[in-house]
Amino acid sequence: MAYNLKATTEKPERLTGGHRMCAGCGAPIVVRTVLRALKPEDHAVIGSATGCLEVSTCLYPYTAWKDSFIHSAFENAGATVSGAEAAYNALKRAGKIDHTTKFIAFGGDGGTYDIGLQSLSGAMERGHDMVYVCYDNEAYMNTGIQRSSSTPKYADTTTSPAGKAVPGKPQFKKDLTQIMVAHNIPYVAQSAPFKNFKDLYEKAEKAIYTPGPAFLNVFTPCPRGWRYNTPDLFDIVQLAVDTCIWPLYEVINGEYKLSYKPKQKLPVEAYLKSQGRFRHLFAKENMHMVEELQQEVDRRWNHLLKLCGETE
Amino acid sequence: MKKKMNVTAESSWKEVTPGGVITESGNAGDFRTGDWRSMKPVWNSEKCKQCLMCFPVCPDSSIKVCNGKMEGIDYDHCKGCGICAKVCPFDAIDFVEE
Amino acid sequence: MARKDKLSGNEAVAIAMKQIDPDVVAAFPITPSTEIPQYFSKFVADGEVHTEFVPVESEHSAMSACIGAEAAGARTMTATSANGLALMWEMLYIAASCRLPIALAAVNRALSGPINIHNDHSDTMGARDSGWIQIYCETNQEAYDTMIQAFPIAEHKDVRLPIMVCFDGFITSHSVENIELLEDEKVKEFVGEYRPEHYLLDKDNPVSVGPLDLPPYYFEHKRQQAQAMVNAKQVILETAKKFEELTGRKYGLFEEYRMEDAEVAVVIINSTAGTAKAVVDELREKGVKAGLVKIRVFRPFPFEELGKALAGLKAVAVMDKADSFSAAGGPLFAEVRSAMFDHARDTKAVNYIYGLGGRDVRTDDIMKVYEDLLEIAETGKVKSTVNYLGVRE
Question: Which pLDDT score is estimated for B3?
Answer without folding.
Answer: 74
